[in-house]
Amino acid sequence: MKSAGSWLRKASYWKTGRPEPYGSRRGKADCNLRRPDLFAIQKPLRATDENDFKEIYAETMPVLFRVSLRIAGNEEAAEDLCHDALIKMTEKNMVFPSVNDAKYWLIRVVKNASLNYAKRKAREKRAYERALKETRKTVDSGETELMKGNTVQIVREALEKLPENLRVVLQLKEYGELNYKEIGRVLGITEGNVKVRVFRAREQLAKLIGDEDVYMP
């Protein structure tokens, strides 16, 4: 049977606001109440918030790079595609319930962009191989320069038909040999915007020339 003194000691703990010893049932409950992490609510992550962006970047960049590299097959391209996805995330002012939600969203964006990149490079490779094959066929016939001249003229005429905003980015990319970031600085637009315009310019140029594999001489 517990003594009255024991009961009074326990009562004094609660009356004075001091917690029970941890070994007791009430002591354990009191200890849990002093742990806010057990009841904390996950704060949404905002892509435009600097600290949230850093957290998303640190947690997702390694897996994004691996996914992109596996599909694109080029380290530099994979890094660019990952950064493009992060830029897209901030431009859309995305808000995620958790880091995992951000990761899965970014993986989808990177995967699709990497697939498009791989398809585009495959088309460019086929176009190059076809052009090389044609060049080899005509090198002994003395028609190489004529073919080159005709190709240049066709492309130039098609370029003139493009809207100015698309024509300029393609000229800077193909003939000015500027990268996407440099073109963005020249035109005062984002790097992601430059890539979209280059893609649309090539697409429209292909339709004008009548060949899906555009070869820029």
TrEMBL record:
Q: Any keyword Metal-binding? A: no
Q: What is this protein called?
A: RNA polymerase sigma factor
Family from the record? Belongs to the sigma-70 factor family. ECF subfamily.
Q: Record's PANTHER family? A: RNA POLYMERASE ECF-TYPE SIGMA FACTO (PTHR43133), RNA POLYMERASE SIGMA FACTOR HI_1459-RELATED (PTHR43133:SF8)
Coiled coil ranges (UniProt) are: 118-145
Q: Which Pfam families match?
A: Sigma70_r2, Sigma70_r4_2
Q: Which CDD domains match?
A: Sigma70_r4
Q: What's an example Gene Ontology biological process for this entry?
A: DNA-templated transcription initiation
